[in-house]
Amino acid sequence: MIKEINFKLNGKETILEIHPLKRLLDVLREDCGLTGVKEGCGEGECGACSVLIDGILANACLYPMGKIQGKEVVTIEGLVGTDRYAILKESFEQAGAVQCGFCSPGMIMAAESLLRRNPHPLEQQIREAISGNLCRCTGYNMILDAVQMAAKRGDGIW
Amino acid sequence: MVAAYRPKNLKDALEAIIYTEYIVLAGGTDLMVKKKQGAGLLPAFDKPVLFIADLEELKQINEKEGYLTIGAACSFSSLIDNPLIPALYKQVFLQIASPAVRNIATIGGNICNSSPAGDSLPLLYALDASIIIENSCRRIEIPIADFITGPGRNMLTSSELVTAIKLPVLHFDYVVYKKVSARKSTALSKVSFVAMAKLKDSRLEDVRIAFGSVAPTIVRSRDVEEAIIYNSSNGSLDKTEIISYYTTLIKPIDDQRSTAFYRRQVCKRLLVDFLGNWLC
Prior knowledge:
A: Ubiquitin-like (UB roll); DNA polymerase, domain 1; 2 domains; five-stranded mixed beta sheet; 6 helices; 37% helix; B: 280 residues; alpha+beta; Uridine Diphospho-n-acetylenolpyruvylglucosamine Reductase, domain 3; three-stranded parallel beta sheet
């Protein structure tokens, strides 16, 4: 069964003829070519497929397309070009928070989601905010440093 | 076959389920994992899916005469952010999964999933929550302990929806909530434990104790709680006896997350700690 689904993707009105049970993750990667959204576990445990849905952090692997009707989806590609992304990218690079890079898009989405709600987070709040994102390279401390650095440098823009 | 349906409102949803047997999907954080086939493949739902996450009627939170009525499709994050929800309840919801999952997962879904490890369930049992069930012509209210009948089983039929959860707003002086799991975030519990005590003029007025993940459903006994209250008021509380009562009530199993032995030990120690430190 194919249905027409209307939603906003990275700022653009989008209409897709798609199966309503297809995962948002697969639609983003396969139908929209947005491969910054990664599939790690496919079970909502690793956070590599994190996106913002109506501004709220969510795992794209847990979202069937039927639930996306009328919503706004922002992926890491949608952040590129914003001042906030520039600061996050620079901070992640300088803190050594990117090694293999697989978790980075999800980590940046989680950081963006945190900073929108709380532009001056405490260390514990950063830990909590990225607690749904697995990283097997950095040991998390450098990611923590990166988010702290971004909060300081981006003071006033979130 | 219709693969999925997005009802316009609650009435539409309740009418749709009269004629077609649907799998009701709210947050989908359990269902999408259970039905997952792999990257690029459609999840294998064997019945059509009814999307209820966006039904406004199921997203309301109200307080009236000391009772909260929480719409079944409220996400755990929306409960955590809502000023009507007591801090004690939020403390439990904050330990569920991860921020992104809490943003999607609903309280109604956690109840209908009826897992022995459902993270919100020990609290809901301890508070005597009731479940509001509707079909197209009636609305009934059932205590949660009656609603959940076994692991993954409950009394909901295919022509009914859980529309809300009714919870009393209660104050307790001592609250212990412990979720024992392999890691802090995104983990299923090996054991979960909620214990709450209320004092009046330094005498025990009420106590609630519930265990999760150690039996086919949540373990709670009002009889034992009343015995604790009664015996503590006349100074004859026999803690060893209380512990042995609970030991017979919990029936843990060995599974991939833990062992029955470990679970028994942890339950016992949590109980000893609560009875010793908070109820002396």
